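Q: Can I see a sequence and its folded structure?
A: Here is a first one.
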Amino acid sequence: MEFNRKHLLGLEGFSREEIIHILDTANSFKEVLSRPIPKVPTLRGKTIVNLFFEASTRTRISFELAQKRLSADTVNFATSTSSVKKGETLRDTARNIEAMKIDMVVIRHGAAGAPLFLTQCVDASIINAGDGQHEHPTQGLLDLMTLRDKFGDLQGKKVVIVGDIAHSRVARSNIYGLQALGAQVGLCGPSTFMPYQAEHWGTEIFHSIEEAIEWSDVLNVLRIQLERQEKGLFPSTREYRRFFGVTRERLEHAKRDITILHPGPINRGVEIESELADSEFSLILDQVTNGVAVRMAALYLFSGLNKETTDA
């Protein structure tokens, strides 16, 4: 299919066909990663800057590795050693970067809408690596790819996102992507972790982890994001584990196979039992592997190679 988007800001509004095209492209790059020399010249001559205003391990390393596998030139921007510490604005940072003839920007920022703002400041393609409590589209795509590897068609599959929905950008990208592919989506967590707009998302809402497990084929377990929360949203991690922790005992009570995803980092023994994260139920390491392939696909498709592009 013709792919004419310039920016990847989120999965909201993406069609089933567009998402499948990205995932099919990721599958082709996954084959590249299995080669003795896992590198192709696809983005040779392209310069990509990684503009991370928040701490990140998996996402940043995954993007850097994807860029190297595609033979792109990579520039890493660290806010701790940049002019941001001296008061430079995002607009000025962006314009200075563009003056260096950058082709693409991968940005993670604590403010929702920062990637969208960047599209108004520079001509480069923008890839959102997570913005505030808005979206994390490549995480959503790699979760979809992991489930597609296991189930094939996701039409009618029941996926429950468990945990801190209100503060999660991963949850939003998963909801939009899963619904586009025909899956049924549920949300589970304390009422204080449910955003006010959840009732408009067309999802099932559970306040009992047992009921959520009984309904679901897949649990996508989120960590409690203490760094984005106000105090007083739940009594303690011990209480959260007691009422909403995903444990082997709870899964086995369902008497059927349940698949576990987790975007990481994992708070072992809080939102998920430590042993369960490494068990036969878990596809967590598959998610990590698929992350590089998905980001290779995103960098390639949104680079504008061999086609005319329009803003998305």
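Q: Show me another, different protein.
A: A second, unrelated one:
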Amino acid sequence: MLKASALALAALLLAGCGGTTRSFYMLTADGPAPSGSGRGIGVGPVALAEYIDRPNLVLQDGPNRLAVADAHRWAGDLAASIARVTATNLGRRLHTGNLRTYPWQRDEEISHQITLDIRQFHGGADGYAVIEAGWRVYALPERRLTASSTFVAREQLTTDGYQALVAAQSKLLARLAADIAAGMH
């Protein structure tokens, strides 16, 4: 199985080198956030590890080696996308539509701010997507730290391909939001 996943990863990388056609991918939330008001939640800023702070999808193809998919890119700023998806997923779990992503206009609109430090967020030759994220929850307006943790998880890709990788990464963000929501109660 590992050998097959490594071969599939190699095929993905070679397919990305063949032409100038680019594919763009976006992270998705579990579903829409509830409409209306509720507890005000702000997500951000989001800090990204340097190796993923780029427009391209990143794959780990060896213990100490990464590959950048030249023709497979994020459809926008990755940090902003992570903030948007995490805010929506948190809204679903905390039953609020009162969501903001950093930077927001006024702190008075929100009661809690969640900051994220994304240390790992990539696919691997083993057929899994991985995330390591530190998160902190601050009560506003006094900016008092109320909870913090590190979330580490892996999500198996359902099929080969970049679309399956981004779907698995989206699931990881949903699991991250569940972890944060549990820490806020």
